[in-house]
């Protein structure tokens, strides 16, 4: 049989090699398996090289053997001798040898004309090459040049290996053609390891095995590690780790191998790699313990570390010393990191510590290091985690005694972040461990509660401090007693506590105490009392500082008094008080209140060169906020760019201005998503102020469900709603009351009841202090709610309910009023609302009485500040702790403040003229319109002209609505002189700005030069636009910024049309003299009225055609989107209301309105937070911090679940691929797999089946996952697998 096979091969060889000097012609490339022939003999190299050589370079002995040589008997025998056993080869060669003279005389095939292309590859000559097994020669090639003569194949191979080409097949061909020289093996191995094909990786492994162990360097180990990582062969990786340790190169290789096993959750192999480091403890190149985790991301370390600790926790037999040592190193790597405790998954961090504590590892140092890291965090979200770590430390180690320094640092951080909910718990911890809190802890607690305005807590803690430490020796501990009342705007109680400093404690009030007293008067906006306190401060020898003048300047800036603010700054310079950024910020605030934003921006830029103490952030935020209110997008971008160039980072106030611009533009949903993203990414911490801004946007849009959701979120996060949130929620509930009343057929009158609005008001009263002062901030918040309810009742004829609410406010909020209700002590807003009530009831004399009170009160509040009430302060000696400002430094003040001196206060405060500040000139706009109507209804329109002249003499300015009201009242009069006055006023004030009837009927109005183009964002996208006009919504928004901008209205034109009709009717009996007078006095107005289009609306029907008033048609309901999670909660995807709610609820509370399935898919994973109240009070964690932690845990668990599914899919995919490889390897191992018989010690380990080394998918899932949910993940991952490599790619 062998002889017949030999004859067949001989015949085929003769046909194949027709001419030894001709090129081999074929259009097909050789199979890749052809290059896997493993023969390395000299004769193989000779004929193989002959195949790739060109005819002109091929030697005749390559295919025609030299006569006399053993291979000259037959050209085919050298290729067939491997078919015979070793003992029978000589005899078979002799029997099969035949002379083949016919091959050389065979005639060449003629080529076709015109086809000169030859299918051959250029090759170089092949000198004799032998396999060099001498290790000395290999080392000579590694460190010097090659020992054998250079050849063309070697040169080409060197050139290829040094290039960036990826022709791996050519490299292997040249390597074989060169005779597999040892000098090239290191470079070839590194070159082949770059390939992503398995065949090339096998060849690289084969060449790597031929390199002696002592000649393997780091340059060859590291590429091989990366190559086998792509190959994913655990056996080879462990072999590489062992050899790297033997070669003293473990620091370069083992971390990568360890990372591979760690990410694949092969804990046994990972522990084995970790254990290898103990073999070379004395080696200088032995990798440090931290190096093993250096090749992984922090997320992979934490998430896989959680699985590793679970593995040890639920498998006690795996707790061998190397595994425990690895666990201890894992703790050090995670909790000594500056980022992991703050940015890692909170539940994973706490569960790892808990698991390690159960398996016997030392965890206390890592609790303490994490708490210390979080206490110094720059974000409130990061700091809030410290309470969770401390609680678990106390729960897991109940006998541990925390140090005083740890508790003091925690209280200090709580004071910095104003987190009052956890103060009492840590004070109780002090008492439990040390008998009483430290004096420093008391100070932190008092300062925190005083700035929060919690009077009861300050009094309680202060009395406990007196019992523990006695009376203080300085005024420092007494300042919180004053601050808590000043923060609430209660100067009377602040004064009483101020007197206790000297009378009860025997101390002289220092500058800090005087500053707090001044702050209480500033909160009340009482300039006279403030000046009196400042005079007493100077008489008692207290030196004013920058905070003193800052308080004085703030009250002037709040009124918009630029001259007084600048004069106070000059007084501070004369007193050698250092100029700080808060002082400059007061001047910028005054400029902004007057609308001079460009000048304020210029001053802010100039102040940066002063190097003044303090941050300029508030200064820029003030300007940014005013630009945002104007919706000037370009200016906002410019301010933000200037802040970045000055190195000023955005904070919560900056983002509030940006969110305000979005809300005003009607992009509330976009603002909600932006706030959610900023909070989740810790760019800022969302406060009640930010959520109330989003609530304001949804109230404007009328999205009832989102108002409920966000208001409930505010109550859950912060425990109570602020003044702005309560007012917004009340306004919305009043809208609901009006809708319900309209459905019942009640639109106005005594039957109207705003039940939901009054319920919200009653809840706010119950949550407020039992007896606040008149000027208390709580009273101001409640007065806004009373004002809105009284106004709504008054406009709709609910006079009795409005009066009852007014009496309720007067009885409950002003108990010290002499003889009951003194209207002078009532806020101006409530008085204006009562004017509406009396106007609706026809009580015009009461309207006039309230107007007189309002006018006198407005003159006091809007008038200029009398600086002559301040005693000229002496120049004090500067304190050692405060640097003085030399006189020579005054030129450093910006030129904006120096070039123009402040105006004379006495000249500007004349009681006869211009006593009203320009920033307060519109303060009487609403009340004046009500008073004008009352005069018009009494037929006393002639008095309006005198009243307007008096107001303008004082410095007040009428708004465009005041002028419209005046025209309407004059036009509705039966006196011709009043009617003529109405036409003349309209001709003068409004006719030049009439846009035409087409635009006027659609709500368009005049656009001033100060209006930015971005105000068009308020309009609908499909609305018409003109560059010179404002849209309907934009006009309403801009009128709040520039109230005196002339805006003719359709309603006013209807009044003039009705008046003109009455004049025309009199022409029949009296002639047309009056009509001619009107036409001569107001020709444009008459022309516009003549062009008035006929409209079937209420305005023309009632005013012009004298028809009865009818109810308006109900608007079609607009479908709104609802986000169940609100701003920061779970469920942040917007859905339509019909997809979420089953019915339209009427309750003001949102109980049971959101299904549980929408809030969270699974709440059982939050069980680690259920027992937070076991240690200490239940308020150990504030609600806002608890809610944030729950949301973070839920998000991290869902993310880890998705990652787990991908990992299991990868395990299943790799098992399938590995099974196919093992099956195919059994059938054709000799033809496909490389021959590794020459690799010495590696061959015995490498020939093991691959599937036996890595556990199956089922066993790995059983090892890693310890609960029932993970079995479902395995099934879903197996079902979703649609390719053999999909899992591996997803896992990588």
List keywords for this structure.
mainly alpha; single chain; 59% helix; 4 strands; two-stranded antiparallel ribbon; 1292 residues
Structural commentary:
By secondary structure, this protein is an all-alpha fold. Among the domains are: 2-96, no CATH class; 918-1104, no CATH class; 1183-1291. The chain contains 65 helices and four strands. A two-stranded antiparallel sheet has the order 1-2. A two-stranded antiparallel ribbon has the order 3-4. Helix 41 (777-795) packs parallel to helix 43 and helix 49 (960-971) runs antiparallel to helix 50 (976-989). It is globular and about 145 Å long. 39% of the residues are buried. GO terms for molecular function: mRNA binding. Pfam families: PPR, PPR_2. InterPro entries: PPR_rpt (IPR002885), TPR-like_helical_dom_sf (IPR011990). Residues 887-899, 1225-1247 have a biased composition (Polar residues). Residues 1281-1292 have a biased composition (Basic and acidic residues).
C-alpha geometry: globular
Number of H- or I-type helical stretches: 65
Helix content: 55-70%
Output the strand order for the largest sheet: 1-2
How many beta strands in the DSSP annotation? 4
Overall pLDDT, averaged? 77
Q: How much β-strand is present in the residues?
A: under 5%
Instruction: State the major sheet.
Output: 2 strands, antiparallel
Radius of gyration: 45 Å
- Spans with pLDDT under 50 lasting ≥5 residues? 17-79, 88-150, 771-775, 814-822, 874-892, 899-911, 1139-1179, 1228-1292
* Helix-strand category: mainly alpha
- Multimeric status of the protein: single chain
**Separation of termini?**
53 Å
